[in-house]
C-alpha cells in the first residue's frame, strides 16, 4: 500500500505530459485507421462479385442437405428434466428484513498480532472539502500544532495540541499550554467543549525519545481513547495517525527515535486502533521516504523531527484523501461511492 502512494505522488507531477502523449498517440491511430479504411474500401470496389469463385469442396458442402434432427419423445424429455425443475433455493429470502441491524456473535479472533501498520491503514478515497475539518479536533503534541499554526493547514479545526507531551498528560488531565491558541487549559475539558464529530490522535514522538517505554506509550494510548469515549458523544469517530519518521541523523542525539523502532511501534499502534474500533491513518506515506526517514524538503529548521509549511501541506492533503466514507461528507468532484437515490 505504501508503494502505491509513493507511486501516485510521483505520477501526479507528470500527469500533464502523459496526457499530451496519449493525445498524440490517439491522433496517429486515427490517421492510420482512416488510411487503412480508405485502402480497403478502394480494394473492395475494384473486385467484381463475379470474380469470386466457389471451390469444388465448397460447392459440394453447399449441395449436401442438412440432416433433420430426430425429435425426442415427450415422455423421454419429461424424464430427463424431472430432476431440474425450477424452484427457489433460498425461499426464506422472500420474508427477509433488509432494514434492521442486529448484533451477531463474534466468530473471528479479535486479538490482532504482528499487524503491519501499512496494511490496515485507510486507503485513498475521494477528496473531502476543507469544511470536513471544521468539526475535527486534533489531539497531540507539537507536531500536531503545525496543522493549525501554518496557513497551509486547517485553521478552522479545533486543537488540543501541547508541546513535549505524551498521552499520559491527556489521561491525567494536567494543566498545560495550548501550542495553537496559547491558552492554559486542561485537555479533556477543551476537547469536550469543541463538540467534535471526528477526533484525530497523534502521540509517540516525545515518549519514544526514551528507550524501552513502548508498553507505557501503548497503555496510556489505550486509556486515553477510553477516557475520551467516556466524555464524548457515542457517535464521535476516532482516527489514530501513525508516528512520522525523522531524519537519519536524529538517532545519534536521540537513540530512541530510530526509524526502525518507530515503524515497529506503529505496528502496535495500528493493532491498538483495530482493537478499539478506530481508523488508522498512515501519514508516514506523505511525510517520509520509503525507508521511513523524513523527506528532506519537509524538514523545519533542520531539526530532523518537525515539519515546515510544505510538510504540513502534504500532511493536510493526505488527510483530505484518506477519510472513511460518510454520507454527510462533501467531496471535491464526484462522490466516490455515490448511489443513485441515496
Number of DSSP E strands: 7
- Oligomer state of the chains in this structure: single chain
- Please tell me how large the radius of gyration is: 32 Å
State the order of secondary-structure elements, H for helix, E for strand. HHHHHEHEHEEHEHEHHEHH
Inertia-based shape: elongated
Q: Beta-sheet strand percentage?
A: 5-15%
Largest sheet: 5 strands, parallel
The mean pLDDT is 83
> Which sequence of strands runs across the widest sheet?
2-1-5-6-7
Q: List low-confidence stretches.
A: none
Helical percent range?
A: 40-55%
- Give the count of helical stretches: 13
**CA distance, first residue to last residue:** 31 Å
Structural class per helix/strand content? alpha/beta
Amino acid at each position: 500500500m505504501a508503494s502505491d502512494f509513493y507511486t501516485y505522488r510521483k505520477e501526479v507531477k507528470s500527469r500533464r505530459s502523459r496526457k499530451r502523449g496519449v493525445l498524440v498517440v490517439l491522433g496517429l491511430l486515427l490517421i492510420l485507421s482512416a488510411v487503412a479504411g480508405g485502402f480497403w474500401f478502394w480494394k473492395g470496389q475494384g473486385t467484381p462479385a463475379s470474380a469470386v469463385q466457389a471451390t469444388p469442396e465448397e460447392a459440394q458442402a453447399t449441395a449436401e442437405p442438412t440432416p433433420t434432427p430426430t425429435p425426442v419423445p415427450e415422455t423421454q424429455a419429461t424424464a430427463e428434466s424431472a430432476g431440474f425443475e425450477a424452484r427457489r433455493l433460498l425461499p426464506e429470502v422472500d420474508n427477509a428484513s433488509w432494514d434492521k441491524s442486529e448484533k451477531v456473535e463474534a466468530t473471528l479472533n479479535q486479538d490482532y498480532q504482528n499487524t503491519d501498520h501499512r496494511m490496515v491503514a485507510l486507503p485513498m478515497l475521494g477528496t473531502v472539502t476543507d469544511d470536513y475539518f471544521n468539526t475535527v479536533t486534533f489531539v497531540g503534541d507539537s507536531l500536531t500544532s503545525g496543522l493549525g499554526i501554518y496557513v497551509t493547514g486547517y485553521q478552522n479545526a479545533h486543537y488540543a495540541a501541547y508541546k513535549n507531551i505524551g498521552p499520559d498528560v491527556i489521561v491525567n488531565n494536567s494543566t498545560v499550554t495550548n501550542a495553537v491558541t496559547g491558552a492554559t487549559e486542561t485537555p479533556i475539558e477543551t476537547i469536550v467543549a469543541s463538540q467534535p464529530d471526528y477526533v484525530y490522535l497523534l502521540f509517540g514522538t516525545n515518549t519514544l525519545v526514551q528507550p524501552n517505554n513502548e508498553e507505557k506509550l501503548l497503555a496510556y494510548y489505550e486509556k486515553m481513547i477510553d477516557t475520551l469515549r467516556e466524555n464524548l458523544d457515542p457517535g464521535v469517530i476516532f482516527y489514530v495517525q501513525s508516528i512520522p519518521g525523522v531524519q537519519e541523523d536524529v538517532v545519534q542525539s536521540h537513540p530512541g527515535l530510530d526509524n526502525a523502532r518507530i515503524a515497529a511501534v506503529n505496528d502496535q499502534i495500528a493493532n491498538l486502533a483495530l482493537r478499539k474500533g478506530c481508523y488508522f491513518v498512515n501519514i508516514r506515506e506523505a511525510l517520509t521516504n520509503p525507508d521511513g526517514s523524513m523527506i528532506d524538503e519537509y524538514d523545519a529548521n533542520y531539526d530532523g523531527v518537525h515539519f515546515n509549511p510544505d510538510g504540513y501541506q502534504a500532511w493536510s492533503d493526505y488527510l483530505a484523501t484518506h477519510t472513511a466514507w460518510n454520507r454527510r461528507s462533501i467531496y471535491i468532484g464526484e462522490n466516490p461511492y455515490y448511489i443513485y437515490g441515496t
